[in-house]
Amino acid sequence: MDARRPDGEQAMSGFEAATAVKRIGEGRYEVDLDGDFGFAEALNGGYLMAVLDRAAVDASPHEHPVSTAATFLRPAKPGRAELLVDARKTGRTAATSLVSLVQGDRPVVEALITTGTLTGAAEPVFAGPAPAADVPPLEECTSMLPAEGTEGFAGQVDMRFDRSTMGWLDGTPSGRPEIRAWFRLRDGYAPDAFSLALAVDALPPVALNLGSKGWAPTVELTWHMRAVPAPGWLAVHGTGRLLSDGWFDEEVEVWDSAGRLVAQSRQIARVGTGARK
Amino acid sequence: MDARRPDGEQAMSGFEAATAVKRIGEGRYEVDLDGDFGFAEALNGGYLMAVLDRAAVDASPHEHPVSTAATFLRPAKPGRAELLVDARKTGRTAATSLVSLVQGDRPVVEALITTGTLTGAAEPVFAGPAPAADVPPLEECTSMLPAEGTEGFAGQVDMRFDRSTMGWLDGTPSGRPEIRAWFRLRDGYAPDAFSLALAVDALPPVALNLGSKGWAPTVELTWHMRAVPAPGWLAVHGTGRLLSDGWFDEEVEVWDSAGRLVAQSRQIARVGTGARK
């Protein structure tokens, strides 16, 4: 990992440092989880996946986490955690490992991660249409940076939200399970596989627009990296299909500044208190 | 598992027998994989997931495989295989285990499976619209049953395809990554969690309609059970977003005869030979 910035100054960025994994043995890594990438309830799931993906890629001959299927067992806490990477198959075009994030001797996140190498060169054989609704221009979007400044998640991640999808903030949820936003890291970290892992779980739960309230713990999230992202803002489109029986799904597509689909995800989560009112 | 039919006659149906798992120890099961649920290249991935889901549910206090995230490492062959179920967390509303299908001492499929209990009673808080295109009425659809009768996958699974999505069969792929079909098991097995696992991977690869040829090995498939399906035909809607760099995604929604979304999946697969022509 090259921690030198283009200006020649050596400095590991906030996101880079927060996701850095240190190899401490065969298939074993340690990480110091950064509380700034989380909320009161738990560290962000996308941040945790970025950490797991770094360990998987480090242990693999391939460069990109093409598929990450993560199950979230318990809230992760800031501080030291260990990663166990168990290679299940290492092939010429893809390698799969089971990666476990362990804290206090208990598994916190488990993921089946398949790495491969995306060339970034070939034109797609087929590319579906862009999402029906664009994210509006940056200057028409709203930020959620707290008045007090740069503490916590919003201090690390710069998101500019489509106002029409943020009615839940002031008690007027749209009734449509959609949230759209621009995404970048405040420290200038350029989009890559690991920031995509963060981006697919960075939106507030789309169920907030259905009257759901509070934290919506992700149970399972699978995301696929589809292309190496271009520099610049990422457009993050979140939707959902069904809120029923206490469960809801959320689909996220991430499009890069070159107009390409670079990541896609689906998660299934428990609804927050208040959704059944 | 009750193998008695309502008519009192004891008979385990084709699908029930083909997916039956026998507990042989703590977290250990064996299964006799049935070659009729496969093709020359390998057994069907949905069939294998049904087997893994049966083992996960048997070992869990919960009834339904709400989330199954499966990675396919090697082709499975007909005959004996062993299942290892490693409980990772057992909670009040959900339980997660890692389930491995092992054949000849090698892992063939690995899955993180979260079980829960869907009540089937509550009205959804939100249900998205049905897919844009209906599957046409049965009598307008086409079957792929081979002339010689009921051997193999098509002899077990009765699918009636929307002709407009089957142009690839006679060399005129539509150019749209879509395949739609009605689905049921020929033996009369009623829709349930395990037949949904089969249904989400029963369609021919949607990439065939993009000029892709031949077998498209699934690398990863995650499916979510969203409701207990009603009796009758299932409508299976397959689409895709991107075929690039040798990878393509396929999304499947399964709707039951009561018009409810009962399962949703996404898989990522390698394209078959010929796609890059």
Automatic annotation (TrEMBL), chains A, B:
<dbReference type="InterPro" id="IPR049450">
    <property type="entry name" value="ACOT8-like_C"/>
</dbReference>
<feature type="domain" description="Acyl-CoA thioesterase-like N-terminal HotDog">
    <location>
        <begin position="37"/>
        <end position="116"/>
    </location>
</feature>
<dbReference type="InterPro" id="IPR049449">
    <property type="entry name" value="TesB_ACOT8-like_N"/>
</dbReference>
<dbReference type="Pfam" id="PF13622">
    <property type="entry name" value="4HBT_3"/>
</dbReference>
<feature type="domain" description="Acyl-CoA thioesterase-like C-terminal">
    <location>
        <begin position="139"/>
        <end position="271"/>
    </location>
</feature>
<protein>
    <recommendedName>
        <fullName>TesB-like acyl-CoA thioesterase 3</fullName>
    </recommendedName>
</protein>
<dbReference type="InterPro" id="IPR029069">
    <property type="entry name" value="HotDog_dom_sf"/>
</dbReference>
<dbReference type="InterPro" id="IPR052389">
    <property type="entry name" value="Sec_Metab_Biosynth-Assoc"/>
</dbReference>
<dbReference type="Pfam" id="PF20789">
    <property type="entry name" value="4HBT_3C"/>
</dbReference>
<dbReference type="InterPro" id="IPR042171">
    <property type="entry name" value="Acyl-CoA_hotdog"/>
</dbReference>
